[in-house]
Amino acid sequence: MAGNKRIMKELAEVRTNPPPGCTVTLADENDMGTWDAVMDGPPDSPYTGGHYKIQITLPKEYPFKPPQLSFKTKIYHPNVSNDDRGAMCLGMLRPDEWKPPNKIADVLRLVRSVLAAPQPDDAVEQGIADQFKNDRKSFDKVAKEWVGRYAK
Amino acid sequence: MRRLEARRQMEEANFLSSKARSQNLNPPIDLRMLDYVTAYDDNLMCPICRCPFLDPVVLAECDHCFCRDCIRQTWASTYSPLGPRGDCPSCRTPAKLGPRSATSKILVNITDDLLVRCPKSEDGCKAQVKRGEVQDHVNIYCGYAYMECTADDCELHVLRKDAAEGCLHFGVSCLDCRQSMQKASLETHWRVQCPDRKVSCELCKEAVFNREWDTHSRETCPAISIPCPGKVFGCNSRSKRSQADVHAKSCTFAKLTPMLTAMQQRMDEQEAAQKVMVRKLEVLEGGFQAVQTILSTKQEDPDQVGADESRIPLLTGRPHQRGDSGGMLDAMVVETDVGAFVFPPPSSSSRPSSELVHVRAGASLPPLYSAPMAPGPRPADLPEPFTMDFDMASPFPPPAANGPYISPLHHLLSMHESLRDEMSRMSAALQELDGRQSMQALNENLRTREEISYMAAQVAGLSRQVHWLTSAQLQRQQHGGAGRQAAGAAGPSGSDIAGAGAGVEAAVSTAASALRGAARIVNAGQGMTMRRGLSEEGRTKL
Ligand SMILES: [Zn+2]
Ligand SMILES: [Zn+2]
Ligand SMILES: [Zn+2]
Ligand SMILES: [Zn+2]
Ligand SMILES: [Zn+2]
Ligand SMILES: [Zn+2]
Ligand SMILES: [Zn+2]
């Protein structure tokens, strides 16, 4: 019960005052538990110009359990798994680190900052992380290529 | 005075019992679902449920404040018999909820004084009350909350505002839709359910059927302002539906809209098609790269192995060509030369044929062992046009397997082929050797037999002579002996001689049997001599 009211409030809040570069809609107007966010690639990053669809799944126990994020648009990024799930590894979203006061808008803001500044030491895709650390140029090149290929 | 007191008590009891009954009819309100009339200060908001605090508690350890229910629920998974405890949801300080955890009365008062709308506002109650009193409002005052029918014989419930009108639980039928129902529920029916009742639209002042209300408010109400059809392409003007056509006639965007939408649609289609193409291209590129990596490893290989690869078949080929074209003698010279790398040079040239066998057997091996160093020690032997990258134009036509190899596998196969050739040549040489040895043994054996039979003949002659001598002696003794027997005296000397004769005969026969044994041994030994290889004697005799 507490969850539902809170989700409604958060949704209204995020719709009237969305985090920069994001728009949020409900996947299904009758289901408050699944949100669709579209995030623009942050400027000054290789992802500029890309539009990323992110699905946010809120568990029944929200806000006591963390939401789950999955990139529906392919992205070349060390912190996003390069598979169908597109899972993003964010410390904040781990069950033991999640704090009920965190809001979805905060999560989206963090996602965008991670897009702008990848965290190779906390990577899901080790190969991409190594490339990011050792060969920034070719990393940027591939990331840009992927923007053109998948995220336009 | 006493009556007054009694009456007050009775009224209080009535009030309390009606309150209790009303509570059964109106379930407790979820205070988190309330609508607040005005915006409230964010500082009054619980960070977990994002509502103004309900029964707030302050964690003594870090001073963070939450609703009691919220913090209990957060800690529900970390149960402890010592009472609720866990990490503060805001700052992760380990904290616990003691029996005296509470907050200042002032915060409770502020949050309880926030104005909320009555939870029955959807049913028609316009009341705005303090949050702390909302439950009482519903239980006692709200006209849209239920209470028991005032009629004594009626057990049903009724909205509080209708209670004064007496029992309303009799059947009526709706004037508009003819549905029959109880009078008590007629008003609700009219307001929201009756499909045939007209309601008036607040915007256009038109009366609309209830059943058409949804479409009217969403689509057809002429007073609703709608955006220009060219909005997506840049026109920001909005106009009432009734005046939309007027605007559309003057708006360039609106005129262009059909064309632009068609173009947009085509672009989307093209984009989708292009995405498919890109996927395909990706797959093709991947395949192409795989092929390239396979090819490039192949090209690197010959550079490494190439030296051996092109040389080995070339050298295995060489003796053949020399042997075939240059004649036996030439072949021998070259082959001995090559053989010297592996075998000690043949000791002497006195037995040319057997030496040829040796060298031949050896000559086909060296290329395998000495291949890498072959070009070094004998550069003079190499013909002028010989180069590392041996090609078809060179005077030595390559043996079948020679030339640039298609793959390492072909190289291995050709090496295997040349090894097989070596093997067959060696086995031929071995057979030749074997035949030669058995011939030698046979010859030697024949000679031995001749000697033996010669010896046997001599022995036979000897034994004949001995026999003749003995018989002559015996005759002489018999003559002499008859004379002596006649004289009556048998001389011991006569028998002595006879004994000696028998002894000689025995000795001769012993010698003969010894000779026969020797012949047998020689016969049996033949087989062994054949296997034992060339004896020095046999070789010289050959
Ligand atoms: Zn709360
Ligand atoms: Zn705290
Ligand atoms: Zn009310
Ligand atoms: Zn009644
Ligand atoms: Zn009706
Ligand atoms: Zn209207
Ligand atoms: Zn317009």
Automatic annotation (TrEMBL), chain A:
<keyword id="KW-0547">Nucleotide-binding</keyword>
<dbReference type="GO" id="GO:0005524">
    <property type="term" value="F:ATP binding"/>
</dbReference>
<feature type="domain" description="UBC core">
    <location>
        <begin position="2"/>
        <end position="152"/>
    </location>
</feature>
<dbReference type="InterPro" id="IPR000608">
    <property type="entry name" value="UBC"/>
</dbReference>
<dbReference type="GO" id="GO:0061631">
    <property type="term" value="F:ubiquitin conjugating enzyme activity"/>
</dbReference>
<protein>
    <recommendedName>
        <fullName>E2 ubiquitin-conjugating enzyme</fullName>
        <ecNumber>2.3.2.23</ecNumber>
    </recommendedName>
</protein>
<keyword id="KW-0067">ATP-binding</keyword>
<dbReference type="InterPro" id="IPR016135">
    <property type="entry name" value="UBQ-conjugating_enzyme/RWD"/>
</dbReference>
<keyword id="KW-0833">Ubl conjugation pathway</keyword>
<dbReference type="InterPro" id="IPR050113">
    <property type="entry name" value="Ub_conjugating_enzyme"/>
</dbReference>
<keyword id="KW-0808">Transferase</keyword>
<dbReference type="Pfam" id="PF00179">
    <property type="entry name" value="UQ_con"/>
</dbReference>
From TrEMBL, chain B:
<feature type="zinc finger region" description="TRAF-type">
    <location>
        <begin position="188"/>
        <end position="238"/>
    </location>
</feature>
<dbReference type="InterPro" id="IPR027370">
    <property type="entry name" value="Znf-RING_euk"/>
</dbReference>
<dbReference type="InterPro" id="IPR017907">
    <property type="entry name" value="Znf_RING_CS"/>
</dbReference>
<keyword id="KW-0862">Zinc</keyword>
<keyword id="KW-0479">Metal-binding</keyword>
<keyword id="KW-0863">Zinc-finger</keyword>
<feature type="domain" description="TRAF-type">
    <location>
        <begin position="188"/>
        <end position="238"/>
    </location>
</feature>
<protein>
    <submittedName>
        <fullName>Uncharacterized protein</fullName>
    </submittedName>
</protein>
<dbReference type="Pfam" id="PF13445">
    <property type="entry name" value="zf-RING_UBOX"/>
</dbReference>
<dbReference type="GO" id="GO:0008270">
    <property type="term" value="F:zinc ion binding"/>
</dbReference>
<dbReference type="Pfam" id="PF02176">
    <property type="entry name" value="zf-TRAF"/>
</dbReference>
<dbReference type="InterPro" id="IPR001293">
    <property type="entry name" value="Znf_TRAF"/>
</dbReference>
<feature type="domain" description="RING-type">
    <location>
        <begin position="46"/>
        <end position="92"/>
    </location>
</feature>
<dbReference type="InterPro" id="IPR001841">
    <property type="entry name" value="Znf_RING"/>
</dbReference>
<dbReference type="InterPro" id="IPR013083">
    <property type="entry name" value="Znf_RING/FYVE/PHD"/>
</dbReference>
